Automatic annotation (TrEMBL):
This is Acetyl-CoA carboxylase biotin carboxylase subunit. Its cofactor is biotin. Residues 3-446 form the Biotin carboxylation domain. It comes from Limnobacter thiooxidans. The keyword Isomerase does not apply. Pfam families: Biotin_carb_C (PF02785), Biotin_carb_N (PF00289), Biotin_lipoyl (PF00364), CPSase_L_D2 (PF02786). SUPFAM superfamilies: Glutathione synthetase ATP-binding domain-like (SSF56059), PreATP-grasp domain (SSF52440), Rudiment single hybrid motif (SSF51246), Single hybrid motif (SSF51230). The keyword ATP-binding applies. CDD domains: biotinyl_domain (cd06850).
Amino acid sequence: MPRIKKLLIANRNEIARRILRAAKPLGIATVAVYSEADEKALHVQEADESYCIGPAPSLDSYLRIDRLIETALKCGADAIHPGYGFVSESPAFAQACVEAGITLVGPTPQAIADMADKARAKEIAQQAGLPCIPGFSEAGAGVSELMAAAQQIGYPVMIKALAGGGGRGMRLVMNEQEFASQLHSAQLEAKNAFNDDRVMLEKAIINPRHIEIQVLADTHGHAVHLGERDCSVQRRHQKIVEEAPSPAVNAELRARMGEAALKLVHATNYVGAGTVEFLLDTTGNFYFIEMNTRLQVEHGVTEAITGLDLVQWQLRIAAGEHLILQQNDITFTGHAIQGRLCAEDPARDFMPQTGPVLAWHADPNSRCDHALQTGGEVSPWYDSLLAKVIVHADNRLAACEKLADSLNRTVLMGFEHNALYLQRIASHPVFQAGDFGTGFLAEHADKLLQAQSFESEYAIAAIFLALEEHSTPAWPKALSGFSSTRALPRPLKLKAAGQSLALKVTQLDHQTIHTCQVDGLGSQPVTVQNWTSVKSGETFQIKATVNGHFGRYSLAINGNSIWVQSWLNPQAALIENETLQSSAAAAEGVFQPLIKSPMNGKITQVLVEPGQQVEAGTVLVCLEAMKMEHRITAKTAAIVDQVHVQVGEQMKLKQTMIQLKEAG
């Protein structure tokens, strides 16, 4: 039987590293591909060979089918693993592999094509006997036809892009009045994401569970399912936390859903690993949504409870091996939960973040699939997903607590991220009770997004600066010539969490006590004792007793910014060196004439024109970055003076997009 000898991995970062980890024990030589932006990435360093396939500022590098095939032929790879994302669900790529005589670690081109079109997938599923949600799909249907269909189905309805996945091109429509605008938004997002603006309609099931069944099928007609995963914790149809098994699924329901999934596998002559996704309503009825013809981001939780390596099984099946597993062989042990660690700021409507990785340390007591490294960089060109934190325990409550603890022990500084948000989800009593649906995050947003207090971190930063014997050019001249045996000559003026701070180190003694007054927050003096500081790489590890409580802190400096993260708190405090005057100028409610891009990205909509009157909250432009569309709004009432951008234009961070002038 032929085996795979050399494998090209047509993906990047943690996805590529996961495949590398599975391939090497099988004696398979590995080949990485990368864009110029990923030249120093870990997957490039760890593969046996690596090849550049495109320029840095382009997502398209990993989508160039011709270059991927050309590289595979050049290096002598006899197989390609597409990972998940990029070309993993492209029928054209699968066909190109067939024509080049290269084994694709995945299903056939026909199976991918059938499942990639949601209308076709639904038709096949219905013919195979799977329960489906009532809906409408007609090629070339216009706005009026779609509106009439929505009226017939009955509101609320879900608009869904026919191509692609990942929640893009999906909109929930509650009534007829908002249908046209939501349709336009969905089609625009689908066009940008998949170059296909066709949509279908489905009856919306409010607050269901999102349940998916993992399947494996070999080239000899044998298939098994590996149970379910619960992916109900979602934001904008994007999965955030996934677990296996589902707290809403018992053995009888699991058997019925698994049987339905295998019917679709046989109906499509499916080969490899795949996922059949369902919605489960509150009465126990389930409905087919779609099939993902690839490995899923959340496959690790299934691996944890079954003890199987799904990527190794993908490789073995692609090599023609028989799937020796029988359905009765599949057993489930304990409970596993995964949190998706993403470069996004929950406090700013989950705005994607970029920046240097100043410090990174994953909890060694849990599985963490990642490609982060201290000294690396998070760029704007790719998905915001950084790492997958996966825990396994004897029962669900223990797994919830273990995930929360693992996130608490995760150190990541240099940009904002969602680790604290994930930790709060894992600790939330409703989540721990297991009785929730896809509306969970919206229902409990106030508690999950509550602002964090950082007074201890601010005090640690002030004391650290005061103890530095020499100031650096980035920090205020107040530190120049400062002796470490007395207080700062004047307050250190900084900005943190959008507020101006005056950090006064009023008493400083190396042997005993440091006292820090944080003005601007109405706080009492913070007393710091038993200070020790050790430099570790580019960060400082600090131990101190703050107001009588022992604490550990990681601290990193980047230009004129300082990051401080306390022990067992996954969110770091960012403190910037700014004058009080400049901070006040940017305060809420102060008129700002220039609307600048908050990130690198592409303009997808320009919704205003010169001379137009706008109110606070009016959407000015839409910007696509890290696979998400972001609405840029006016902060105050104003008149549009100039529009500096156009649809399709690539924006850089802080580039001016719109110029306003005060109204009246």
